[in-house]
Amino acid sequence: MLIDTHCHLDALEFDADRDDVIQRAQKQGVHTIIIPAVNVGNFEVVRQLAHSFPGGYYALGIHPICVPSAQESHLADLESAIQLALTDPKLLAIGEIGLDYFLPELTQPDMRQKQEMFYTAQLDLAQRYKLPVIIHVRRSHDILLKHLRRRPCIGGIAHAFNGSLQQAQQFIDLGFALGFGGAMTFKRALQIRRLAQDLHLNDLVLETDAPDIPPAWLGLNEHGERDWSIAKPRNEPAHIARMAAVLADLRGVTQEQVLTTTWHNARRVLPKLRGI
């Protein structure tokens, strides 16, 4: 079975055809879609959406890009939402949380400090309620790892991983799987493709980050050329099947091996999935 371990299915880009998107994914063998929250305003939205179809699951958290507009009281709101959902089999993790030192507006000292405060507070919630985390990491691997080492046994998924081989191993040693998706499908993404080849398959999971990080084949015309009239192609979970084929090709294994192993990997790092 295929799992899209990271899909923002609640995004506005899906408002016109969300049910069709889910059906297309199911036809491609994607039976599980995990929907992470990004701020307090969509906690209930992702919960309801996950409950609207059999393969829907969700995570609750405050995304680092949403931290500038977040208030400290939102951490208490997050804890209340977690407490209410602890017995909900569809709540899998705390996420999407992390640090983003890529966007210029998030790199100022005061904003870095605020991000770090929100990140560590959410790690504490994960530890308190024994939930794994889904982590956003952009140019922040070492600081993320520093705080994770202080809170062992959390585990989870390092989403859209793009660090070094050494950093990858440190996340793995802390009980994380690494998420690979659309970026891996571009031949020019040499570092990501090298990681996809060299890391042990037991440490990888598949994801789309839909509607973002579209794979290489989106936005092409019938001749296989880039169609510049499509400013930003929309990704969707149905593409996970083809991403699995790309990963299999990179590694020189069968697609079935990729499907089976990444399925078990997701169930290992997100233990509540083991019930399905």
Looking at this protein, list some descriptive labels.
276 residues; alpha/beta; TIM Barrel; 8-stranded parallel β-sheet; 9 helices; 8 strands; 38% helix; globular
Number of strands: 8
Q: Sheet with the most strands?
A: 8 strands, parallel
Structural category is alpha/beta
Head-to-tail CA distance between termini: 11 Å
Helix content: 25-40%
At the first level of CATH, the class is: Alpha Beta
Please tell me what the overall shape is. Answer: globular
Contiguous low-pLDDT stretches (5 residues minimum) are none
Count up the domains. 1
Number of helices: 9
Spell the H/E element sequence.
EHEHEHEHEHEHEHEHH
CATH architectural label: Alpha-Beta Barrel
Chart the SSEs and their pairings.
Layout: E1 2-4, H1 18-27, E2 30-36, H2 43-50, E3 56-60, H3 73-85, E4 91-100, H4 109-128, E5 133-138, H5 141-149, E6 156-159, H6 165-173, E7 176-180, H7 190-198, E8 204-206, H8 240-251, H9 255-269
Helix pairs in contact: 8-9
Describe this structure in words.
By secondary structure, this protein is α/β, with parallel strands linked by helices. It has one domain: Alpha-Beta Barrel (TIM Barrel). Helices cover 38% and strands 16% of the residues. The protein has helices spanning 18-27, 43-50, 73-85, 109-128, 141-149, 165-173, 190-198, 240-251, 255-269, and strands spanning 2-4, 30-36, 56-60, 91-100, 133-138, 156-159, 176-180, 204-206. The protein has an 8-stranded parallel β-sheet with strand order 1-2-3-4-5-6-7-8. Helix 8 crosses helix 9 (255-269). It is globular and about 45 Å long.
